[in-house]
Amino acid sequence: MSSTVTFFGVTQSKPLGADSQHTSLRSTVLSLITHGYAVMKMPMTAQIAVWSTLDGISRVPKEQSRDFCFPDRTDGFLLKGGEHAKYTENVDLCDRFCYWHKHRGLHSGHPFVDTPVYKDIQKSESELWSLSQRIVSGLWDFFRNEDQMIIRDSSYVQLCMYENGHQVDDRGYLQDRHEDGHLITLIKPTRDGLVIFLSDEEVPVHLADDEIIVITGSLLTLLSDGKIPTMYHAVRNPKMELSRKSLVYFAIPDLGQPYTTLLEKKTINIASIADESHRAFGNAPLI
Predict the structure, then answer these.
(1) Residue 173: is its pLDDT beyond 90?
(2) What is the tens place of the pLDDT at every residue in 110-128?
(3) Were 68 and a residue from 76, 116, 191, 254 both cysteine, which residue would form a disulfide, CB within 3.0 to 4.6 Å?
(4) How many Cα atoms sit within 13 Å of 179 on the Cβ side?
(5) Over 50: is that where the pLDDT of 251 sits?
(6) Which residues neighbour 203 within 8 Å (Cβ) at sequence distance 6 or greater?
(7) Alpha carbon distance 98, 247 (integer Å)
């Protein structure tokens, strides 16, 4: 069963679950506009990089991960407790690794930089940035907006590692319900557990090995003058001990540029809004 949604004269079926495939750029753009999410097939080069990263990140020696830790810029290996839900302040029950393309020059001299997994992370960032930029450009083209929306230097990759020892019995979620506060987020988990909230109803996300889910954030809602919904999501706490990992790409606009909204052309201080949201999770300032 499905319902239909009409937006700007385009009618599209609205799926009730998160297992529908939206492979073309136009389908992805329409799904994000009407539903707040889309499921895409990753190019083979992205699949190889992403799965190699997810496989290798847990095998990094402790001494390398301790050395490669930069919480003052939300970069490198960050232990559980460094990030929390901005609405409940429950700590996310995962370790993290963050990689920023703009910080790559600061990594020189660290042994971790010479490892295969670091190179896989760089490849994953490049692949997911390229995919995200195409999606964002497609959204701007749909609204017939000629402004350039560049994302790479303000965006970053995050690996979430939900180890068995991090689970607690009194939590329904490993990550509480939230929205990311960005333009879009690309998520590739190793196991089920991710849920999205469609019309406030919790819906589990099931992805094939070659699929990735794209969800919308409040910056995109703001820039679209409220036309594009914000997708809230969470990660369920499983009933059994189950190690899980997820590779995430957060697409954030270049914070050094001025912006106007897509329809009403209102001037908007994206840098301040994005920074406030980022810090609300317990992260270091963006600006």
Answers:
(1) yes
(2) 999 999 999 999 999 999 9
(3) 76
(4) 21
(5) yes
(6) 16, 17, 18, 195, 196, 197
(7) 10
Question: Tokens representing 201?
Answer: 């109803």
What average pLDDT score do residues 54-76 get?
A: 96
Mean pLDDT for 84-106 is: 92
Residue 8 sits at φ, ψ, to 5 deg, of 55, 40
Find the distance separating the first CA and the last CA of the chain, reported in whole Å. Answer: 46
Using N-to-C axis directions, what is the helix angle for 116-142 and 44-56, rounded to 10°?
130
| Amino acid identity for residue 125 in this structure | E
The structural architecture, per CATH, of the domain 22-280 is Sandwich (2.60)
Q: What is the mean pLDDT of residues 80-105?
A: 92
What mean pLDDT is reported for the chain? 90
Domain boundaries, given as residue ranges, for the chain:
22-280
Q: How many CB atoms are located within 10 Å of the residue 12 CB?
A: 17
Question: Token pair for residue 267?
Answer: 């001037």
For the cut 70, the answer to whether the pLDDT of residue 228 exceeds it is yes
The per-type count for the chain, helices as H runs and strands as E runs, is: 6, 16
CA angle 116/120/124 to nearest 5° reads: 175
Return d(Cα 267, Cα 98) in angstroms, integer. 31
Distance CA 274, CA 155 (A): 11
Q: Which residues, including other chains, have CB under 8 Å from residue 287's CB and lie 6 or more apart?
A: 255, 271, 272, 275
Q: Is the pLDDT of residue 3 over 70?
A: no
In sequence order, the β-bridge partners of residue 98 are: 76, 158
CA 64 to chain centre: 25
